[in-house]
Write a structure and sequence with these properties.
Blueprint (H helix, E strand, L loop, with lengths): L14 H10 L4 E2 H11 L8 H14 L2 E3 L15 E4 L1 H23 L7
Antiparallel strand pairs: 1-3, 2-3
Helix pairs in contact: 1-2
Length: 118
């Protein structure tokens, strides 16, 4: 994990990182389910390719934003090859900080009449 990580000084997340964190915010998921949830949450606008997803998950595991889950579904509905992922407390804080940053940008866009309230 990166010891010097700071929520105040970090740069914006990569869009795929935020999409993965968002997909894991409500529940633990395996890779394909993360891709499906990202697509669902974006109304079909986001499609994460498998290679991109697993590179992103590897990076997020390394910095401590996600962890492999020890919990598994019942054997009759599971596949032993699946790996399940969950947000860590740090990952949840990172996702919340990014959501706040994006909300401030949307507010600024409304103030500058780029968006209307709809």
């Amino acid at each position: 994990m990166l010891a010097a990580y700071s929520l105040r000084t970090r740069m914006a997340l990569r869009p795929v990182e935020f999409q993965v964190l968002l997909a894991l915010a409500a529940d633990e998921r395996h890779g394909y389910s993360i891709m499906q949830e990202a697509a669902r949450l974006s109304g079909g606008e986001v499609r994460i390719e498998p290679g991109t997803l697993y590179r992103t998950l590897h990076r997020m595991l390394r910095v401590g934003w996600v962890a492999e889950s020890g919990r598994r579904p019942r054997a009759d509905v599971d596949d032993d090859r699946r790996r399940y992922y969950r947000l860590t407390p740090l990952g949840r804080r990172v996702a919340a900080a990014e959501a706040g940053r994006l909300a401030r940008l949307v507010a600024a866009a409304r103030t500058n009449r780029l968006l209307t309230r709809a």
